[in-house]
Design brief:
Layout: H1 3-23, E1 31-35, E2 38-41, H2 42-58, E3 63-66, E4 70-72, E5 80-88, H3 90-94, E6 101-108, E7 111-119, E8 124-129, E9 133-136, E10 139-140, E11 153-156, H4 166-176, E12 182-184, H5 189-197, E13 203-206, H6 211-223, E14 227-229, H7 237-240, E15 243-246, H8 248-258, H9 264-276
Parallel strand pairs: 3-5, 11-12, 11-13
Antiparallel strand pairs: 1-2, 3-4, 5-6, 6-7, 7-8, 8-9, 9-10, 13-15, 14-15
Helix pairs in contact: 1-2, 5-6
Bound molecules: D-MYO-inositol-1-phosphate (IPD) and calcium ion (2 copies).
One calcium ion is lined by residues 44, 67, 85, 87-88, 90.
Length: 277
């Protein structure tokens, strides 16, 4: 395994240990509210601290973008930039629902290069290196081969914090329901994306994500032969927060279903993201 990926795996496992330990005593946790429907616990911070400490020890000059502590180093121009979600699925974690993960990605010269998504509850470790493929616990991953939407299981995330695009989201949802075998909303975007890579879902879409929710999972999908874009199929998902992913056949079919539901606000969101890129 590449040394940088190895360090990221070590950091993710260490954070996973802290999270699992804390999950045994949820009653003891101090929980605060960042905003409506946005909770954070001391575990998110402790997991993030350990990840950053391990990455910094190995790579003191790399920039970091982390959900809880923000940025350090020159995030725009650094050659290497880590993108960290120490606990993706905090709401599940706080409810004792074992569907959450540690997500760590590395960008090299602005391009996603390494990725780790680790579910400490079942010890599933998803990894990818650009050009090196995607793996689940050392087993090579490929996206599903399903081509008929009626056979497909689709993952999604229902908006709950920022409700700006909820009407557009629901109209997309309504249009997809009758065409597929089922829709799932497990509550951890990094795992959802990893499941597309593993062929468990055939496609996935969500609006309103942050870069740390998507960065690692997106590379894992690409390295498993899948496609990732925003709701217009463009490469601005990290900047816009709207994401569509799937095996290539399903991706293009979902893109067509979504197109008529794109509101002016979603298109503007996409245009603004394009400028930022
Ligand atoms: C959340 C999860 C969830 C998604 C939210 C994210 P968090 O991350 O990934 O599935 O729907 O938009 O914010 O806050 O638990 O790290
Ligand atoms: Ca997250
Ligand atoms: Ca988080």
């Amino acid at each position: 395994m590449h040394p940088m990926l190895n360090i990221a795996v070590k950091a993710a496992r260490r954070a996973g240990d802290i999270i699992v330990q804390a999950s045994r005593n949820l009653d003891l946790l101090t929980i605060s509210k960042k905003s409506r429907s946005d909770y954070v616990s001391e575990v998110d911070g402790a997991a993030e601290d350990v990840i950053i400490r391990i990455l910094r020890e190995a790579y003191p000059n790399h920039a970091i973008l982390a959900e809880e502590s923000g940025t350090s180093g020159d995030v725009q121009d650094a050659e290497y930039q880590w993108i960290i979600d120490p606990l993706d699925g905090t709401t599940n974690f706080l409810h004792g629902l074992p569907q959450y993960a540690v997500s760590i990605a590395l960008k090299h010269k602005g391009i996603l290069n390494k990725a780790v998504v680790y579910n400490p509850n079942n010890n599933e470790l998803f990894t990818a290196g650009r050009g090196d493929g995607a793996y689940l616990n050392n087993k090579r991953l490929r996206v599903s081969k399903r081509i008929h939407l009626e056979d497909c299981l689709i993952g999604t995330g229902i908006p709950f914090r920022d409700l700006t695009h909820v009407e557009a989201y629901l109209s997309i949802f309504k249009d997809i329901i009758p065409r597929v075998a089922g829709i799932r909303r497990p509550g951890s975007a990094s795992l959802d994306l990893s499941y597309v890579a593993a062929g468990r879902y055939d496609g996935f879409w969500e609006i309103g994500l942050a870069p740390w929710d998507m960065a690692a999972g997106a590379l894992i999908i690409k390295e498993a032969g899948g496609l990732v874009g925003d709701l217009e199929g463009d490469d601005t998902y990290l900047e816009s927060g709207q994401i569509l992913a799937g095996n290539p056949k399903v991706f293009s079919q979902l893109l067509k279903i979504i197109a008529p539901h794109l509101t002016e606000a979603l298109k503007e969101n996409h245009r603004a993201a394009k400028k930022k890129k």
